[in-house]
Specification:
four-stranded antiparallel sheet, Cytochrome Bc1 Complex, Chain D, domain 2, about 30% strand, 7 helices, globular, Neuraminidase
């Protein structure tokens, strides 16, 4: 008879301070345990937790809570007392004892998914934590890239291949898109959009343009003003995002115009910020090959950003990186150090990786980590509050595809404690279904994920399963 071995590993789960929302054991399991034990408790790096017989502890809630709390060092199980709150330990124990109750509760989301099943059958094969569901917010946004949400709820989306910028509008304010407007066309790879002071900023390859009073003019063929920024027009890594920092400045990256080259002395391989009118451009960070995602921590206000590693070092080197820049002027290693740990074979020239700022997380080789965003809303369970989500566009030249997911980066005291899958299923039966690009959140706390492969924006919502019966 197979035995059920209990929780040999948990990716640390630390709640937002002061959070008092209901604790969802199924969601906690998906966030902190599924990476080791499988989304369905079937086992992965850690043992199977879905069998009927308990080996290390009695199948009773109190005994399981004690085991999780005190751990079993000889079996690789750490003690979580003092790290996980007792309520969270109890919720995980309850879920493991009564997983069927959570599954039954998750079925309450089925009608919404079923309504779209005929049109979007692939939605049924996406995998999200229990209680979460995903729908197509809009399928009328060809080559959808970066997103910006205005205070009135209009979602602006930039498009690389189409050369357009779209406005997604819910005229009834019910989060159902019933109007898609092209506000601009014939632009040069306008992948970046940002909303600031009533204006929409759109970043092209060599310039930044501004649409004033955009929420009132988006459907009236609005004109734009060119913001003088002095951006270069290189095509290689020339597409640029634009984001608004917490101090009201615009942040724009300038990638390396190559796979790998030394451009330390010029404008490339850096992140800049400037006033909204393009004045006072200043360097924020350097040694960055190609960043396509910025976000600011809601508490520290520090900049976090993704950086894509170089090619032609094989399938497994180097890793994409997640970085943070608490101060301006830091160097993140390119072109001397690849992935934070590998001296570049062409450009290291005696330089050591220890000279440069180490990544907060190594995200994987060629995963093409792009947009990222912190969740500051209240719709998701408390354990997701102020945590970071990253859209991994997916590898294009790796023997076996990697990436193609939305990752959840769990932080505690601004340190990364786990990197787990939040949305899987962008590849189904070996076929690329979608390629996630950017993350944004709506006013109700739901998540948007853009997809430039099928020209979609997905919406992720949460509905708490009913509490499992106590025993």
């Amino acid at each position: 008879m197979k035995r059920l071995f209990v929780l040999l590993c948990l990716a640390a789960g630390i709640a937002a301070p002061g959070a008092h929302a209901a604790v969802d054991g199924a969601a906690l399991y998906q966030q902190h345990c599924a990476a080791c034990h499988g989304a369905q408790r079937e086992g992965a790096a850690g043992p199977n937790l879905a069998d009927a017989t308990w080996a290390k502890v009695k199948p009773q809630k109190a005994a399981l809570e004690k085991f999780i709390s005190t751990g079993s060092p000889t079996n690789g199980m750490p003690a979580w007392k003092g790290t996980l709150e007792p309520a969270k330990i109890a919720a995980i124990a309850n879920y493991l004892l009564h997983p069927g109750a959570a599954a039954k509760g998750a079925g309450k989301n089925a009608p919404a998914v079923a309504g779209a099943a005929a049109k979007y059958p692939e939605l049924a094969n996406f995998k999200l934590p229990v209680g979460f569901s995903m729908s197509v917010f809009s399928d009328q946004v060809p080559a959808a890239r970066s997103m910006a949400v205005s205070p009135s709820g209009i979602v602006y989306v930039g498009s690389r291949a189409a050369g357009k910028v779209y406005a997604l509008v819910s005229t009834k304010h019910d989060y159902v898109i019933d109007k898609v407007v092209t506000i601009a066309a014939n632009l040069d790879a306008p992948i970046g959009v940002a909303y600031l002071n009533g204006a929409l900023y759109v970043s092209e390859i060599s310039r930044l343009v501004r649409f004033d009073d955009i929420d009132q003019t988006f459907d009236k063929s609005p004109t734009y003003q060119v913001v003088n920024t002095g951006l270069p027009n290189d095509k290689w890594h020339g597409e640029k995002i634009v984001k608004v920092g917490p101090e009201g400045k615009l942040y724009i990256p300038v990638g390396a115009p190559c796979n790998v080259c030394n451009k330390e002395s010029d404008i490339h391989s850096k992140i800049y910020r400037m006033n909204p009118d393009g004045s006072q451009r200043e360097e924020v960070a350097r040694g960055i090959r190609n960043s396509v995602g910025f976000a600011w921590h809601p508490d520290t206000r520090n900049l976090w950003f993704t950086d894509n590693g170089r090619d032609l070092l094989g399938d497994n080197l180097p890793s994409d990186k997640l970085n943070t820049a608490p101060t301006a002027g830091l160097h993140f290693g390119f072109p001397y150090c690849a992935g934070g740990v590998v001296a570049d074979p062409e450009f290291a020239a005696g330089r050591k990786c220890s000279e440069f700022v180490a990544p907060m997380a190594k995200l994987g080789p060629h995963v093409a980590s792009l947009g990222l965003e912190f969740n500051t809303g209240n719709q998701f369970p408390a354990q997701y509050k102020n945590q970071l989500f990253i859209a991994e566009h997916g590898s294009w030249n790796r023997t076996q595809k990697i990436g193609y997911r939305v990752a959840l980066i769990t932080l505690a005291d601004s340190q990364v404690v786990s990197d787990t899958v939040f949305i899987d299923g962008f590849i189904q039966n070996g076929e690329v279904i979608s390629r996630p690009v950017d993350i944004a959140f709506l006013a109700d706390g739901s998540m948007l994920v853009s997809d430039d492969h099928r020209g979609r924006v997905y919406r992720v919502t949460y509905s708490a399963p009913p509490a499992a019966p106590s025993k």
